[in-house]
Write a structure and sequence with these properties.
Length: 67
């Protein structure tokens, strides 16, 4: 099991997130090139667990969420 260094990760909030964080996620493109993954976390719990997904899985998620 590999551990990713997320200390320099630049997080982006979902465009659907309100000022208080809402019920949304944050994601980062920072690790896309070096690690080939997109980290995703709960915008209400930025110190909580991080899920890493492949770019393909992220694209599928975005497509589904946009419905």
């Amino acid at each position: 099991m590999n551990t990713l260094d997320l200390s320099n990760t630049l997080w982006e909030k979902s465009s659907y997130s309100d000022q208080q964080g809402g019920e949304c996620v944050e994601f980062s493109r920072t690790l896309l090139s070096p690690a080939g993954v997109i980290p995703v976390r709960d915008s209400k719990n930025p110190t909580g667990p991080v899920l890493t997904v492949t770019p393909s899985a992220w694209a599928d998620f975005i497509t589904y969420a946009a419905r």
